[in-house]
Amino acid sequence: MVAAVVLWFVATWFEDDSRWMPAERSATVDTSIPAVRSDTPLRVNTDALSCQQAEAVLVQKVEAAQYCSTDDDCTLFDYGYPIQCLTSVAKSEITALRYEYLSYEQSCAYRVYYDCPSGTMERQAVCRNNRCEVDLVSNDPLENATLQHLGIKDP
Q1: SS3 40
Q2: Is 16 inside any structural domain?
Q3: Contact, 138 vs 121, CB < 8 A?
Q4: Domain range for 81
Q5: What's the pTM value of the predicted model, to 2 decimals?
Q6: pLDDT along the chain (155 residues), means of 10
Q7: Which three-class secondary structure state does DSSP give residue 26?
């Protein structure tokens, strides 16, 4: 135990560089805080602003592309954030929206990634009141068989 203490003392003594350095006088440190100049420019994070603008443009274009007259006019557009899960848009707009989503990805270096879960449900694009929407339909064969057996669902 004594040997360990002696070794520790010797090691810490050799680690101390102050005995090898020339003695210096301590300089006084200016601790005053300079006043902010009136012409100091305001700095904003332009990357965050361009990302927010790209998100807003994408959401607006998705909302504008949700027009339809029949179910065949609609298709799924589940890309995750910033678009809501279970989104359906007009098929005629899908290519333009994909390019807009690529533009969003390039504008936002720090994007949020998530998948749109559906569990055992199948997503179907439908047209309601001239607006593309998504219906969730169960694709669980046991549930479908049970509903048919109970007479709740037609075969």
Answers
A1: coil
A2: no
A3: yes
A4: 46-150
A5: 0.56
A6: 82 64 64 66 56 86 93 86 82 90 80 64 88 82 73 64
A7: coil
